[in-house]
């Protein structure tokens, strides 16, 4: 059971001393505490006359006098009511508690689980179960974007899997506390506070990391990340810290979903990778286009279009990208790099067509096609970590730190040691750092030889 970003996670809550229990808030008697988060508490309330059950989210006392936190609560209520969509949680009350002056909102009481909790028991999910949920999510985003609202913090924790009376599963988008409204449908918004990052690292789009304007395409990137986790039980980028996740996001495309789940339809694989394109202009233009494409995949109506001319699918391994020229080479790399504690991505067969969406994300300027023997040693393979370690509800970081980390890793790669092969059997290859000393010595020897030659000629005369 969850409302907003306050999620009940089977914790024992001490409620006997809570002064709000038994009180009446807007004709709703507060019956129990059902969830607690970093900034708020969520209570179950029941209308005294008609018996309607609701959720009441109250800002914690420590934040009651924080203008930014109060504004987030107000923004959430206003934004939801500006959209009015069945797949978005409804908020129909706002006020302040009389004694403590803590702001609160009254909203739908949802039965079910947040998607992040749901995935712990159900991921990886079957495409036939994933597609209807993503369709509802995109429908909600389409309605939000139509009135200029960009969520900016979409993640499984902000998507609720609702249990309907008929036994079917539906979704509700929750927590619009970080949402911003553009001046027009499909418009962009500037960062709230230049120099800070707001969002969840695993699902933030690269443009959010850079602190540039965000657009509806930013939300589509997050949808791609959510779909990726639903289908593979992996995050697109996994690392032990948020800063490393952001650094990876700026440098590498994620491993293709089909490498984790070989049976996954290639069109659906390409659809996900399109939404995870690092360049916003390469993603599908809006939620409606993404929804139409997803429905065609679900209906089996994709025709297997040929790839874009010149584009060749690439294998994303744990240490880099290998153009799909030699699948034997790719299999070897994947196998060798997957011997650590992280899971091994599976090989992908080549007997099927290439998705029309996959082609847009296969050739990136950073993916240089070179022979394996000339490739410098790569960093150690990534390890798989629990998503909870990098899924903080919201982070505020300096974009300069992220860019500095990216530049640092790039410089480390350019200065990586070069292994010199030794032909003599039984000898161990020696690793030395690249240096210009050898070149200088050779040039010096050549100059000395030239001077010696001149001296000999003069002596003959």
What does this structure look like?
- This protein is of the alpha+beta class.
- The chain has two domains: 2-108, Phosphorylase Kinase, domain 1; 114-332 and 385-413, Transferase(Phosphotransferase) domain 1 (Transferase(Phosphotransferase), domain 1).
- Helices cover 33% and strands 15% of the residues.
- It contains twelve helices and 17 strands.
- It has helices at 67-83, 115-122, 127-146, 206-209, 216-232, 242-251, 257-260, 266-275, 287-298, 327-337, 399-414, 437-460; strands at residues 2-3, 6-7, 24-25, 28-36, 40-47, 53-59, 91-96, 103-108, 112-114, 149-150, 159-163, 169-173, 180-181, 314-316, 321-323, 418-420, 430-432.
- The strands form six sheets. A six-stranded antiparallel beta sheet has the order 3-4-5-6-8-7, with helices on one face. A three-stranded antiparallel beta sheet has the order 9-11-12. A two-stranded antiparallel ribbon has the order 1-2.
- Strand 11 (159-163) and strand 12 form a beta hairpin.
- Helix 3 runs antiparallel to helix 9 and helix 5 crosses helix 8 (266-275).
- The chain is elongated.
- The N and C termini lie far apart (102 Å).
- Mean pLDDT is 73; it is low at 1-15, 303-344, 347-396 and 413-435.
- The chain crosses the membrane at residues 437-458.
- ATP binds at residue 57.
- GO terms for molecular function: ATP binding; protein serine/threonine kinase activity.
């Amino acid at each position: 059971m969850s409302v907003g970003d306050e999620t009940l996670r089977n914790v024992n809550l001490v409620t006997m001393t809570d002064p709000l229990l038994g009180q009446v808030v807007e004709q709703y008697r507060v019956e129990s505490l059902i969830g607690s988060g970093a900034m708020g508490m969520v209570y179950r309330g029941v209308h005294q006359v008609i018996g309607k059950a609701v959720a009441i989210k109250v800002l914690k006392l420590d934040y009651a006098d924080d203008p930014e936190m109060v504004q987030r609560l107000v923004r959430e209520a206003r934004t939801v009511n500006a959209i009015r969509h069945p797949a978005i949680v409804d908020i129909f009350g706002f006020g302040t508690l009389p004694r403590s002056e803590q702001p609160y909102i009254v909203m739908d009481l949802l039965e079910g689980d947040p998607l992040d909790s749901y995935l712990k028991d159900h991921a990886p999910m079957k495409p036939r179960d994933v597609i209807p949920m993503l369709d509802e999510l995109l429908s909600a985003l389409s309605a939000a974007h139509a009135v200029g609202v960009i969520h900016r913090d979409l993640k499984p924790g902000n998507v609720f899997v609702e249990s309907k009376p008929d036994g079917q599963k539906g979704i509700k988008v929750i927590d619009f506390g970080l949402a911003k409204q553009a001046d027009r449908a499909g418009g962009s918004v500037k960062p709230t506070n230049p120099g800070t990052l707001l969002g969840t690292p695993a699902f933030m789009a690269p443009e959010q990391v850079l602190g540039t304007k965000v657009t509806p395409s930013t939300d589509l990137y997050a949808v791609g990340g959510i779909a990726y986790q639903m289908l593979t039980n992996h995050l697109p980028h996994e690392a032990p810290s948020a800063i490393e996740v952001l650094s990876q996001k700026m440098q590498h495309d994620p491993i293709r979903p089909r490498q984790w789940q070989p049976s996954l339809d290639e069109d659906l694989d390409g659809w996900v990778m399109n939404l995870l394109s690092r360049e916003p202009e390469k993603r599908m233009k809006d939620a409606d286009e993404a929804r139409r494409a997803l429905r065609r995949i679900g209906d089996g109506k994709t025709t297997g279009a040929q790839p874009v001319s010149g584009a060749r699918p690439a294998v994303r391994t744990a240490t880099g990208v290998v153009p799909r020229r030699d699948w034997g080479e790719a299999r070897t790399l994947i196998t060798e790099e997957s011997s650590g504690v992280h899971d091994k991505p599976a090989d992908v067969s080549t007997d099927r067509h290439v998705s029309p969406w996959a082609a847009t994300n296969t050739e990136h300027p950073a993916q240089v096609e070179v022979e394996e023997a000339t490739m410098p040693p790569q960093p150690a393979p990534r390890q798989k970590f629990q998503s909870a370690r990098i899924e903080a509800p919201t982070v505020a970081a300096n974009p300069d730190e992220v860019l500095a980390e990216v530049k640092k890793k790039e410089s480390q790669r350019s200065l990586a040691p070069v292994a010199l092969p030794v032909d003599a059997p039984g000898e161990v290859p020696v690793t030395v750092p690249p240096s210009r000393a050898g070149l200088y010595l050779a040039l010096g020897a050549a100059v000395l030889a030239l001077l010696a030659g001149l001296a000999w000629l003069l002596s003959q005369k």
